[in-house]
Design brief:
The chain is 32% helix and 27% strand. The radius of gyration is 18 Å and the shape is globular. The protein has an 8-stranded mixed sheet, with helices on both faces. Strands 3-2-7-8 form a 4-stranded mixed sheet. The protein has one domain (4-23, 31-267): 3-Layer(aba) Sandwich (UDP-N-acetylmuramoyl-L-alanine:D-glutamate ligase). Helix 7 (225-238) packs antiparallel against helix 8 and helix 8 (243-257) crosses helix 9 (270-281). The protein is of the alpha/beta class. Bound molecules: alpha-D-ribofuranose. Alpha-D-ribofuranose (RIB) binds next to strand 2, helix 1, strand 8 and helix 7.
């Protein structure tokens, strides 16, 4: 049975600038032609989860503008239900994404409609898993956590302090190694720590319960790789697969997502991940 996943989070239009090397402080560099892509951690995770076989509903807000239409169209194209996404007077939030030839990136998010993100408590409580990230207000995240009956999964990115009230609601926390360190190595619930192309580690009550090494690929663009990991992990885990198996699928999905430019462009389907895992075992 495909799990029902609710994502409450950001929806951004990403302005992607490719360059040989990211600028240093005070430095000006030239970029290739600017390209617009749908993005935002919430929308990216919703698309990743839908492509991996989840029945996904998105909750958030966009402006009544062209970037908002682009983002909604991309969600719908991947099968995400966008009926509950609000259209508000503020502009759609925009991310300036600088990607250098090594695949490394820097991102600045200009906030807008994400600050008006909202949700429907009845739909949240009916979901098998609920995903949130830190690009929407903390007050909304706490209310979502209270409404959730299924697995409440928090991706603490971009990192900020986790209040005691929120910590008590979290079932699964997913962070990268830098966020983990900045949060003081949190030990509540199931904590999954990603580390780019290095091994992912899952902790329960501070003890290691599973590990997985991402497959090696020639990454073109790592923007959205973390979001792909989160979306893929939650679909497997909410389907009843073990933490170890869910990590393996999420690592494969995340690696595959880096092969195309744009956060959502390379996100694989469940079948593509199956084929990839099968071929890497042969
Ligand atoms: O995680 C990648 C995302 O972060 C980008 O799509 C950008 O919109 C920022 O939110």
């Amino acid at each position: 049975m495909k799990p029902q996943i609710a994502v409450v989070g950001s929806i951004n239009a990403d302005l992607v600038l490719q360059m040989p090397k990211l600028p240093g402080r005070g430095e000006t560099v030239s970029s290739a032609e600017p390209k617009w892509f749908p993005g935002g951690k919430g929308a990216n995770q919703a698309v990743a989860a839908a492509r991996m076989g989840g029945r996904v509903s998105m909750f958030g807000a966009v402006g009544d503008d062209e970037p908002g239409q682009m983002c909604l169209a991309a969600l719908a194209q991947s099968g995400v239900n966008t009926d509950s996404v609000l259209k508000v007077a503020s502009p759609t939030s925009t991310a300036v994404v600088m990607v250098e030839d090594t695949g490394e990136n820097q991102i600045v998010v200009a906030d807008g409609a994400n600050q008006h993100a909202t949700f429907d408590a009845a739909q949240i409580s009916a979901a098998d898993a609920v995903l949130v990230q830190f690009e929407i207000p903390e007050s909304v995240i706490i209310e979502v956590g209270k409404a959730a009956n299924g697995i409440f999964c928090v991706n603490a990115a971009p990192v900020r302090e986790i209040s005691k009230e929120l910590a008590e609601l979290i079932d699964v926390l997913i962070v990268n190694e830098h966020e983990f360190a900045q949060l003081g190595n949190p030990a509540f619930g199931l904590v999954i720590v990603t580390a780019g192309s290095n091994e992912v580690v899952a902790y329960q009550g501070g003890e290691v319960v599973a590990k997985s090494a991402p497959p090696k690929v020639e990454a073109l663009d790592t923007v959205g790789a973390g979001d792909t990991f989160v979306g893929a992990f939650i679909v497997s885990y909410a389907s009843g697969q073990s933490v170890a198996d869910s990590l393996e699928r999420a690592c494969a999905a995340s690696a595959l997502s880096t092969l195309k430019l744009g956060a959502q462009s390379g996100m694989p389907t469940s079948d593509e991940v199956d084929q990839f895992l099968q071929s890497s075992k042969n």
